[in-house]
Amino acid sequence: MDPLTRILWRMAQWWRHPPSRTYVRILIVVLVLATVLVLVERFIGWPAWMTTDRVPIRRM
Predict the structure, then answer these.
(1) Is the pTM of this model over 0.85?
(2) Could you give the count of Cα atoms lying within 13 Å of 52 in the half-sphere of its Cβ?
(3) pLDDT at 59
(4) One digit per residue, pLDDT tens: the chain, 60 residues?
(5) How far apart are CA 38 and CA 43, in angstroms?
(6) Residue 18 parent element (H or E)
(7) What 3 state SS string does 30-56 have?
(8) Which of 15, 19, 41, 56 could make an S-S bridge to 23, C-beta 3.0–4.6 Å?
(9) Phi and psi, residue 55, nearest 5°
(10) How far is CA 33 from the centre of its chain?
(11) How far is residue 13's CA from residue 17's CA, in Å, rounded to a whole number?
(12) So what's the pLDDT on residue 17?
């Protein structure tokens, strides 16, 4: 199932059986935190201490 169909299916389910207020609040908080992280990374930059280093793969 492609992503657009899945989103439309979920919206139809939510229309028929709306989620609780608690679930909606948690969803909004998660979306806001994700948006804040993306904006920080995009405009301020990612701190060096949070960047992982690539580990070379040893081949035998």
Answers:
(1) no
(2) 3
(3) 79
(4) 799 999 999 999 999 999 999 999 999 999 999 999 899 888 988 778 878 888 888 877
(5) 9
(6) none
(7) HHHHHHHHHHHHHHHCCCHHHCCCCCC
(8) 19
(9) -100, 125
(10) 9
(11) 6
(12) 95
- The structure tokens 């939510």 sit at 14
**57 token code pair:** 């793969």
Element at 24 (helix H, strand E): helix 21-39
- Residue 29's pLDDT is what? 98
CA distances from 11 to 5, 6, 16, 40 (A): 10, 9, 9, 30
Enter the tokens of residue 38.
Answer: 């993306």
Distance CA 44, CA 25 (A): 28
CA dist list (Å): 34 to 28, 29, 40, 52: 10, 9, 10, 20
